[in-house]
Amino acid sequence: TGKGIVYLSRRGFGKSADFGSVAISAISTLKEIVVKATSKDEKDMQKFLNDKIKMTYYEMKPYLRFTDMTNNRSEFHIGKEIKGADGLTVIAGNNSRIIGSAPTLASLEGGGARIVIIDEAGKIKGLMELVDNMLPSLCGEDGITRVGVPLIGGVAGEVETFGNDYQELWDKADMRDLLRWFVPGWAGVRLD
């Protein structure tokens, strides 16, 4: 679609868990993709990767899980190394990965991601610059057409420190081909 989402709601609504489900679903169903995920700092990124993304994977029935090749604090790679007929090692299965990245320009730019998830966006210093540097990593081979999806989530009311960037991102979402998704108060709305 070429669109992304700026997602704003109250705390405890389940944005992080939704983002985790999107990441696991993507690498489980799409071959050879990269999902990048970040949060307000590196420690929270690792917590997000472990508690919201990997937790979803571990809750799956074992017979539904793909084999994980790499599973550490900053990467989760599914696939399986096998020997090809020519004796070379190849990766079978989806060969897709989730990479946990620090919320820095260098860690989120480039890399040809299919999905980039920014959790706790209202608490990230320099969010606008981070987003603007990340968006080209979602482009196709022509370097112009967006084929990946940015998912940017934050909490209404907890943006006192760096909230101006989040407010500006919300206000200028159209300029970046982002859809605004606002869930007020206790709306209790969930999408499958």
Radius of gyration: 17 Å
What string gives the helices and strands in order?
Answer: EHEHEEEHEHEHE
Give the integer mean of the pLDDT values.
Answer: 85
Record field, number of beta strands:
8
Overall shape: globular
| Beta-strand proportion | 25-35%
Query: What's the story with the biggest beta sheet?
Result: 8 strands, mixed
Low-confidence stretches: none
* Helicity range: 25-40%
* Span of the ends, CA to CA: 18 Å
Structural class, from secondary structure content?
Answer: alpha/beta
Structure overview:
This protein is of the alpha/beta class and 192 residues long. It contains five helices and eight strands. The protein has helices at 15-29, 42-58, 105-108, 127-134, 163-171; strands spanning 4-9, 34-38, 68-71, 75-83, 89-100, 115-118, 149-155, 178-183. It has an eight-stranded mixed sheet, sandwiched between helices. A hairpin with a 3-residue loop joins strand 3 (68-71) and strand 4 (75-83). Helix 1 crosses helix 2. It is globular and about 55 Å long. The two termini are 18 Å apart.
